Amino acid sequence: MSIRENFSDADMDQWLNDNRVTEIECLVPDLTGVARGKILPRAKFTQDRGMRIPEAVLGMTVTGNYPTEDLAYNRAISNTDRDMILRADPGSITTVPWAIDPTAQVIHDCYFADGTLVDFAPRSVLRRVLKLYAERGWRPVVGPELEFYLTEKNIDPDLPLKAPVGRSGRAETTRQVYSIDAVNEFDPLFEDIYDYCALMNLDVDTLIHETGAGQMGLNFQHGDAMALADNVFYFKRTLREAALKHDMYATFMAKPMGGEPGSAMHVHQSVSDAATGRNIFSMPDGSPSPHFRHYIGGLQRYTPAAMAILAPYVNSYRRIVRHTAAPINVQWGMDNRTVGFRIPISGVEQRRVENRIIGADANPYLGIAVTLACGYLGLIDQLEPTPMYTGSAYDHFYELPQGLPQALDLLRREDRLRDVLGERFVDVYTAIKELEHQEFMTVISPWEREHLLLHV
Predict the structure, then answer these.
(1) Potential cystine with 407: which of 145, 217, 304, 307 (Cβ 3.0-4.6 Å)?
(2) What local confidence, expressed as pLDDT, does residue 373 receive?
(3) Is 204:263 a contact under the CB 8 Å cutoff?
(4) Which residues contact 293 (CB under 8 A, 6 or more apart)?
(5) Cα–Cα distance measured from residue 271 to residue 288, given in angstroms and rounded to the nearest whole number
(6) Cα–Cα distance between 267 and 53 in angstroms, integer?
(7) How confident is the model over 119-156, as pLDDT tens digits?
(8) How confident is the model at residue 329, as a pLDDT?
(9) CA distances in angstroms from 217 to 257, 338, 358, 370, listed in the order given
(10) Which residues form the GS catalytic domain (predicted)?
(11) Cα pseudo-dihedral 26, 30, 35, 41, rounded to 10
């Protein structure tokens, strides 16, 4: 399933004609989830199917640097700055509703010159995992829930973020979780967001106010993993544009404000039989199946090694703190929001697992790919979970890495995840994240100046 399911190149061209599109934004999600690519006039897009951009675009840190001294990285990415060939996914074509002239955007897959997928591209990693499921006759079903903050514009990065001023003329100063009135403070913004999403065919669902000041959450309808990753990718871009129109910022940082909860991308996940559509997590009599237990067992066993992907930045680990609405371990429980893996109350066909560990800052393709990879390994290895946790899991000890260096070390050493995700992807990804951490370590924080300058 895509935004426009079963679209062909001919269907895409007809859609461009019907919508009188004059420009096309040709997008490639990079490892950070940033939209890279080119903007082409309509005629050039039609002529140049197979547009090219440098392979190194997929090998950059979030600051735009390259880990060129890393040997594994250099084995994975050519030092000749060669091109990738980009091919549009016709089903992902949609409008750019904030553009002045009729403009389309379409997501591209990346290929080497020999016609094979660039294996360290985020969409390729997700395709690789989904192929493993398909070979077993299974089809993952996912439903992301994405949290984010609205903030005042922050021109000086040395200054802390502030909650935005709503239509009342005041910023939030108290907890407004699930408050309808607090959401209505930003009605003009959310009306634009819903209008944009409708024009783009993004199947968004419930909007709520989360715990933090200016923190909101949006649920997506469940469905195909690639289509939902595309939707999250598009939505992040759409929300930022809409916020700027209303003189605000929207941020998906995992922990943008001190003293406020972090933002997550909770992913509900189940697996269906591709032939029958039946949820394999349930037995015919309605009881939980062995597959259900094994999937949870896989999440528990491999998620610590996946944390560098689920929590990809130094800032991500500021969210993984006890009693801050984020899990600190891999326990699981029924309708329990303190555990890493919550089992929502549901019908037999809706039986699913909610991964509450993934940060809002995670690349949606990689975040979904690696949580499905953990579950897949549990299924094929028939891993058993620990007993269900019944109390507050904040009383349990930490089972997740508490910093990026530890998480990268776990990912590098986990051969089973490397096999599923792809060796070159792991080599490229870990090299990039290691360089990002080195760059972060050159920056002195306000805390250090406040508490160490005159006291040590």
Answers:
(1) 307
(2) 98
(3) no
(4) 384, 385
(5) 13
(6) 32
(7) 999 999 999 999 999 999 999 999 999 999 999 999 99
(8) 97
(9) 16, 18, 14, 22
(10) 122-456
(11) -20
- β-pair partners for 85: 52, 111
Which residues pair with residue 251 across a beta bridge? Answer: 149
Segments in 311-398 forming alpha helices (H): 364-381
Residue 205 contacts residue 221 (beta carbons within 8 Å): yes
382-399 confidence digits (pLDDT tens): 999 999 999 999 999 999
Amino acid residing at 244: L
**CA–CA gap between residue 41 and residue 326 (Å, rounded):** 45
pLDDT value at residue 1 = 44
Using CA atoms, how far apart are residues 140 and 417, in angstroms rounded to an integer? 18
Contact, 68 vs 74, CB < 8 A? yes
The Cα 120–Cα 31 span in angstroms is: 9
pLDDT tens track for 289-300: 999 999 999 999
Q: What residue spans define the domains of the chain? A: 9-118, 131-421
CA–CA separation, 201 vs 348, rounded Å?
29
274 within 8 A of 267, measured Cβ to Cβ: no
3-state secondary structure of 81: coil
- The count of other CB atoms within 10 Å of the CB of residue 24 is 25
- How far is it, in rounded angstroms, from Cα 38 to Cα 29? 12
What does the pLDDT read at residue 166?
86
Alpha helix segments (H runs only) across 280-391 = 290-310, 364-381
User: What is the CATH number assigned to the segment(s) 9-118?
Assistant: 3.10.20.70
Report CA-CA distances (Å) from 335 to 190, 332, 356. 29, 9, 12
First-to-last C-alpha distance (Å) of the chain: 59
Token pair, residue 400, equals 């997740």
Spell out the residues 6+ positions from residue 255 whose beta carbon is closer than 8 angstroms to its own: 262, 263, 315, 316, 318, 319
Cα 293 to Cα 284, 290, 351: the distances in Å are 16, 5, 12
Q: Which of 386, 271, 261, 254 is nearest to 330 (CA)?
A: 386
pLDDT at 168: 86
What does the block give as tokens for 213?
A: 């000041």
Q: For residue 197, which amino acid is it?
A: C
Class of domain 131-421: alpha beta
